[in-house]
Amino acid sequence: MVKLALSGLTCPNLPDVFHLLYALSKSMGSAIARQRVQLQNQQQALQTKLNADSSAKSNSLVQAKITAFQALQQMLETDYQNYQQSLHALSQAIHPFNLNTGESQFGLELPTMLQVPLQRLADLSQTYAPTASQAALHRWQRQIPDLSRTLHAWWQWVIQALSTQTQDPELQNWVLSVLLPWVYWHQQTRKTRQPQLKQGYQQAAQQAQARFLADGFTQTLHNSEQQQWIDWAIWMCAKFQRTSSAVEGRNGYLSALHHANRGFTEQTLKVLTIIHNFDLKRDDGTTAAQRLFGKSFPDLFESVLLQMGELPRPRHTLKARKSQKPTVQAVPA
What we know:
Blueprint: H1 2-8, H2 17-52, H3 56-93, H4 110-125, H5 130-165, H6 169-191, H7 195-214, H8 216-220, H9 223-237, H10 245-260, H11 266-278, H12 288-293, H13 300-308
């Protein structure tokens, strides 16, 4: 199916941003963390030795070593900060809107935006896990064109879907440049858990909301019409996905369930699939089937109750039940 989609239908390939970032964290991030722990342990050991030994000559040597370790630790902390900032820069760049200006990003400028953080990480990779980290960076360079095409494909979808809703150029410009940035950054803020990234997304959402409220065209729309376009923007922004975590989360859940129960039948798998598609709901109250087919379905639990009928009576055992009351055996006189 993947080969048919890529070569036959020429569909854009969406690289998983989470996996790209995780590869850097697993290689370079782990190497930096290990060195930080090693330096801290060595400093603690030297400090304990310094407190226990009262010799002046020995103390001077130990103090010199502690000073050298502190210099190494300071350099390591600087490298760690550069590493964290580079990862955040990579994550913040792969969006359909610019985080600072709120302007649209169609993918053409993405290679330029990723060049600085990738070069900074390439410099760090010479010191920390050179083989694994450079392999992860090579994977980034190889998939940058696909990331750009993903942004371009989403924007094509937005423009084509919007043209089916309205032909008014002023209204289209308002949706593309004013409404969509606010809705997108609002959704991104709710999905993000990392504190620093969340703070940046919150600031972008607040700026976009201020532009939305101050825009003159916003004031010309009735509240019901505004809400109609907001609902459309929510639906459209939700279609931009940078990771396959939703699918992998379900696979991980099924894997854990399979391991805990030592396997389950095909019927159980079908039931879990039905629950996943027709019962689990997002914050907006919609299920996966409702979002896919564009229509509502009956409540799953009530549908099952209507088809169950009368519950069977409990089974009766053929053996006579023995009394559990305490008895006292009579003793003959």
